[in-house]
Amino acid sequence: MATVCALSAAPLTPRAVAADTPPYSETYRPQFHFTPEKNWMNDPNGLVYYEGEYHLFYQYNPNGNSWGDMSWGHAVSEDLVHWKELPLALSHDDEEMVFSGSAVVDRDNTTGFGTKENPAMVAIYTSHAKDTGIQAQSLAYSTDRGRTWTKYQGNPVLDIGSREFRDPKVQWYAPTKSWLMTVSLSTEHKVRFYSSKNLKDWELRSEFGPAGATGGVWECPDLFPLAVDGDENNIKWVLVVNINPGGIAGGSAAQYFVGDFDGKKFTADDRGTYTPPTGTVTQDFEGTDFGAWATTGTAFGDGPAAGALAGQQTVDGFDGKGLANSFHSGDGTTGTLTSPEFTVDSSYLNFKVGGGRHPHEPGTLLEQGPPPAGTVLADFEGGSYGGWTTTGEAFGSAPAAGTLPHQQEVSGFLGGGLVNSYLDGDATTGTLTSPEFTVDKEHINFLIGGGNHPTGYADPTAMELVVDGEVVRSATGKDAEVLDWASWDVGDLAGRQARIRIVDDNTGGWGHLNVDHIMLSDTKAQPVSRETSVNLIVDGQVVRSATGANSETLDWASFDLRPYAGRRAKIQLVDLNSAGWGHILADRFTEADTAAKSVVQRADWADYGKDYYAAVSWEDAPDGKRYMVGWMNNWDYSGAVPTSPWRGAQSVPREMALRTVDGRIRLISKPVDGLESLRQPHAVSASGVAVRDTSEPLIGPAAEGGALDIEATFSLEDADRFGLKVRTGANGEETVIGYDTTTEELYVDRTRSGAVDFNSTFPGVQTAPLKAENGKVELRILVDWSSVEVFGGSGEAVITDQLFPDPASQGVQVFAENGTVKLDKAVVWHLDSAHD
Hints:
Residues 675-830 form the Glycosyl hydrolase family 32 C-terminal domain. This is Glycosyl hydrolase family 32. One of its GO terms (biological process) is sucrose catabolic process. GO terms for molecular function: sucrose alpha-glucosidase activity. Strand 16 (253-261) and strand 17 form a beta hairpin. The protein is mainly beta. The strands form 10 sheets. Strands 46, 47, 48, 49, 50, 51, 52, 53, 54 and 55 form a 10-stranded antiparallel sheet that branches. Strands 1, 25, 27, 28, 30, 31 and 33 form a 7-stranded antiparallel sheet that branches. The model is unreliable at 1-16 (pLDDT under 50).
C-alpha cells in the first residue's frame, strides 16, 4: 500500500467506539449506504434479483476489520435502499478463499441442483487456492432463496492453471440458450468470454483486450445490453472493466467500453486514433546531448537515450529517436535534469511521461541535509537501549546495526544503529518504551520506516507519544525499508511529561518498524523526496507535477500554465528513487493552446471519483432495468480509512442507461428512485440567487445536515468557478463541489474535508469532463456521514468520494470565484436513515 508516513494528531482516528454506541450510529457510519454491522467489506458480488429480493453478496472478512479470510457476506433488499444483513453465505476454508463472482437463478435446472419448480440459485466464484495461489472458477448452490449454501463437489469447473484469472460474471444468453461467462485475465489486461449449457462445462469463445486504460490489473468485468437514447431498436453492449491502479483519479476505478456483442465476441466501437494538439516543441531530445538542460547525479546520463537502456524492458511510446531516461545503471541511480528558465507565454505544456509511479509530495526535500538543531532523545548508538525498556522479542536486547537477516536493505538511518523490529522476521512482536521526558520544544522529529499499520487499527506497527497514559500522537511506516523524517507538532503539550512507545504488534507482511534519531526541536524536520517525476517550478516551488504509471510506455500528460502567465519557470525531471520502478521517462515538451489527453483521460469511466470500484450490475432486475453498485473505496488507502467496527461501504445503487452526449454514446447513471423514499417531507429551496466572488450560506440552518439530497441548477455568467460546499464547519473544514468554466469540468475538492492525513493519496481534487447544456449546469448531490456522490448533467459525469468530516460540520454554502453565477434553483432534502 503506497502511503506517506501516516501521522495523526489527537483525537486518534478511528475514533474509539463507546461500548454503548448503538449500531449504525458511530462516527462516519453511512446512513443510506450499505455497510456490514462490523468487519471488512470490499467488492459487491452475486448481484441477482429473485422472488422480490435484490441480493447483495460481498467480499467479507468474518474475522476482522482488514482484508483477509475472504468469504461472501450477504444482504437482501426489496428496494435497493433498505438492506437486511444475513448470515455469512460462502465461507473461506482450509483450502480456499472465496473471491469475487456472480450469482444466477437456474430456472431451467441446467445444473440439476434444484428443480424447475424450485430453481437453485447458483454462485459462480473465484476459488483462490491457499497453497498454490491458483485462481479457478467454482460453483455453490442454494435452494432456499440464498439463505444456505452448498459448495459443488466437482469444483473447480474452470481452471486454466493461472494465478490471475478471476471475477466471473455469468448471465443467461437467450439467443443461444446457454450461459455466458465474462471473466478477467487480470495482469494480461484481457477479458475472456466462455459459454456453457450447464454451468459446469465451459468452452472459450473469445478474448477482448488489451484496450483503453491498462495501468493496473483488470478485475470484476461485467457485460450487459442497453438501448441507446431509449430506442429499443438500437441496442449496444457495455463491457465494464474495473482497473487497479491506473484509474482516472488515481488508484482503482471503473472503466467501460461501448460496442457490439454477437454471442461470442465483443467488439468495441472504434474511437479513431488520437492526434495531440499542435504547438511549439521546446525539447524533443533528438540531439546527441541535452543542450542547455543541466543534469545532477548520474541517472540521466550525458544525453538522450535511444530507447531502453541496459537491463531495462522495452521502452515505447516516445517520438523520434531519443528521450530522457533515468535508468542509466538501473533503478539504483538518482539525479535531476533541469531546463533553462523561460517565461510562461502559452496556456499548456504538453509532454510524454513514463517510468515509475512515485509522485512528488509537497513539503519534501530533494536532498537530505543535517537534522534540525535540538535535543536528541535517542540516537540508538553505543550498542544498548540505555534507559528504554522492552517487552516481547521483536526489538531484541540492543539496537540493530542496519539490515537484519532475510530483510530487504534498510537505509536512511543515521550513524551505526537504529531500532529495527524485524528480529527473526515479521513474526515477532513487542514494544520499546522510553524513559519519561519533558516536552520543551515545538516539535518531535524522528526517522521512521517499515510497515504501514497505524495505531487505532488491528495489529499496529507504530511509534506513539504517550501522555498521562493516553496515546496523543502516532506514526507508522509506508511499507518500505528506507527511513525518512517525520514530525509531530507538540506545541500544545509544552511542559507535559511524556514517553515514546514503539509498538510492533503485527505478525504479517511488513509486520515491523524501523526508527532512529528521535529529537526535540523548534524546527520541523522535512522528509526527503522519493519521487520519479516531471515538475514545473515557479519561484522555487513545484506548482505542477506528473509521474509515471509503472510502465515503460510513455503517454501524454499536460500542465495547465494559465495561472503562471508571464512568470519565470523551469521544467525539472527528478529521479530520487532507488527502489523498484525508480526511474522516469520523458519526451516531446510542447507549448500548446489546448491540453493533450492521456490514454486514461481518453478512456470512458463510469465514475470519475476516487471511491467507486469493482462496479457490477444486478441480473434479472424487474422491468429490464440495469442497476449497478460499486465498492465505495480505493485500494490506495482502503485499509487505513478511519472507521470502526466496520470498514468498507457500497455506493448508492444506480440506474444505468446509454445516452448520446456531445455526439458520443456515454454510459449515464442516476441514483435509484427508491432513495427518494428517505426524503423528509419538507424540502427547503432557494431560487434566483446571484452570487459574486463570495461563499455564503445556502438558505441557512434549515439546509444544513450530514445526510442530504440536493438538486441544483446554475446559469453560467462570468464566474470562473462556482458550486456548493457541503459538510462545512470550524477551521475551514469543507468539501467543495464545483464547476470550472475554463476547463469545462465538474470537480470535488476534499483537501479540507476533515480527516485526510491517514494516506498521502487521499486529499486532493477529482475532476470529470462536463459540458454546460444551454448555458446551464445541473447537479444532484448525495451527502452522507462519510461520502459525497455528485451526478452532473444527465449523469454522464459522476464523482464519488469518501470524506471523514467532524460530525459537527454540517454547513452548506453556495460560492462563485472570479465573477458571478446565477443559482436558478436549489432544493435540499434531509434524508432519513435507511437503518431500522
